[in-house]
Amino acid sequence: MAPSIRLSPAARSLFDEPLAIAVQGLGPRQQVTLRTSLRDETGQLFQASAYYQAGDDGELDLARCPALPGGSFSGLEPMGLLWALQPQKPFWRLVKRDVQSPFLLQLEVFEGHGERPGRLLAQAQHERVFLRDGVRRVPVREGRIRATLFLPPGNGPFPGIIDLYGTGGGLPEYRACLLANYGFAVLALAFYNYEDLPKEMKEFHLEYFEEAVNYMLQHTQVKGPGIGLLGHSKGGDLCVSMASFLKGITATALINGSVANVGAVLRYKDITIPPLGVNPKCIKVGKSGIADIIDALNNPLEGPDRQSFIPLEKAECCFLFIVGQDDHNWKSEFFAVEGSKRLQAHGKEKPEIVCYPGAGHYIEPPFFPMCAASMHLLFGKPVMWGGEPKAHCEAQIDAWQQIQAFFHKHLTGKPSRTSSKL
Question: Which residue numbers delimit the Acyl-CoA thioester hydrolase/bile acid-CoA amino acid N-acetyltransferase domain (predicted)?
């Protein structure tokens, strides 16, 4: 019997779902190298490889067989070939630009171990898709809003969430659509560097975000009385500002967010919140040319920088802080703890804070490979994001469950079936 790759699900799976990988038809205890490849929409190649030895029966099941040292990872890692994918171009991050098309994963099995792969023994292709069948993608251009709404299959109304990314700008849709697969109506909202929105991050007006909140609250497919907010990085502090000043927000989840306004002036009616000061002297640049900006931001508890602290005690919602303890973009854990102190000092409910040791800044949906460093739009050079690949991958899996459970609890009143594994 010729060697073959067995996948489950066989042909396609959701990107955030596990994929079972096995090889059959090998010789007893045969040594092989497994390699995965994936190209993003710009054509950039991501690869991972691992060394394995088949069992006495010539079977190799990644759920039972540990990878040997020397490849992209070692040990028992059934999903290692996906989370260990690394770009062949330095400082390149895997993002999904068009959620309506899948990522095509190539799997190959080569003879032997070593730098140069031996003879190709077997290969397979697998589609990693972003939209579950029946999820509707609706471009939104109402008033000033530039967004995409994802609606789950079936008859609503559904609990509603607005999803915001960070300083990259544009309109990333992949987290919003993956979340919609689990029964949420999710609005991926652009706020700069997209279509006719401002090109640069200089000044934001909360009235724009208020328009988006009202759009969701009035939508027939969105279940009231309030909605949820999900923000990563700069999107996190925008969500804190929305929760603090706008009506109709029930639950706010932040992924490595800040409780101080960062990077741009924020205005709402007659209120102005200045951005937190930056001290360029605190940026450390290593021999590799990668900057560590962890200490660049001023402390929002001291001097004039206190004006940048967002008055989150005004919020009428519950908070969840997801924290990567190895975040090198900024001090996410410090921000979460100070936000918690501020809320409790004003008699508000203590927020949930979930900390992940070994996780960096970009905590994405499950199985996105960790990005250790990439270009930072505001600094104009590559910066380190932190994280250790295996711990970061585990954090992404758990955080995804925590976020869904948090929104199920506060937007539907029903606890979800998930529980923390870390």
Answer: 16-142
